[in-house]
Amino acid sequence: MAGRFALLRTAMTDTPYHPPRKRSVEIAGHKTSISLEPMFWEMLQDAAQREDLPLNALVARIDAERIEAEHPPGLATSVRLWLVADLRRRVADQ
Q1: What are the CB-based long-range contacts (under 8 Å, 24+) for 5-11?
Q2: pLDDT digits (tens, 9 = 90+) for 54-66
Q3: What are the strands, taking DSSP E only, across the chain?
């Protein structure tokens, strides 16, 4: 059980309740910005490191996956959903 919570510890700072922060990313040669809460930026950076990808490449992959969805959500929502799904997969694999 302790292993399950170790995955969450990485993303938790003093409090998870912080306003979103806007950052620029580049997808397929086009710059755009995404507003995410700091916890999600941290989780995204950790995921990019695990996947051995630059952050922009992971965001581009998430963007490509979301475009294929029947009802594609916005990019920031897609990133959050992808991160939660990734966390669930990793917890289930423990």
Answers
A1: 7/87, 7/90, 7/91, 7/94, 8/87, 10/42, 10/43, 10/46, 11/39, 11/42, 11/43, 11/46
A2: 999 999 999 999 9
A3: 21-27, 30-36
